[in-house]
Amino acid sequence: MTKLGLPSLAVTIGTMTLYRGLAYVTLGTGAVSQFPATYTDMTLNNVPGTPIPYPIALFAVLALATGIVLHATGIGRSLFAIGAQEDAAYFAGIRVKRIKLVLFAVSGVVAALAGIIYTLRYGSARADNGLGLELTVIAAVLLGGIDFDGGKGTLGGVIAAVLVIGLLRNLLMLNDVSTETQSIVTGFLLIISVLTPRLIAVFREAQGRRRGAKPATPAASS
Predict the structure, then answer these.
(1) 151 with 43, same domain?
(2) Beta-carbon contacts of residue 188 (< 8 Å; ≥ 6 apart)
(3) pTM for the whole thing?
(4) Where would you tag: which of 126, 159, 200, 212 has the fewest CB atoms within 10 A of its CB?
């Protein structure tokens, strides 16, 4: 993908659809549910001596490591530079293709780890596991302040958005709200997270034009 210059989002969605189709061919409408209790218990139990579940502890460790890399290292600054302007980053001496390749590989490993935890926590491997979560992820990223064009945003904002969306989904489930309605809410959040930064940018641009159009104050006569 990096060598051929293919659009990342299109390749990601295409690959996801491909593997989901293979999962349907392999499993059909059935499920695999016989997993060792040792593994399933780790996704349900807390870290010994604490009220923190193992998945939350793992999330905290990964979030801390990611935050350090993004906001306190040269690699993180390179990632922001690539997101802001890939060509400028290349001419600045940043190895764009290699960094993007490593980034895609790390992203794939983390996604695979999340898939394993999800499967063990619910004790069922189905072809439709995680169906629709891709939109939730995009909504969380955009709602967390990440610029869709790249180069702007913080990990803290994304984590806050994940917590808000997770809390909202849990509240909806506790009130027996249907899955379809939850999807509507997720879509609404996605639209809001895309529109809000654009509207703010348009408002600021209009304000800038108004200030620039104000006539200059005549100098006081001596």
Answers:
(1) no
(2) none
(3) 0.77
(4) 212
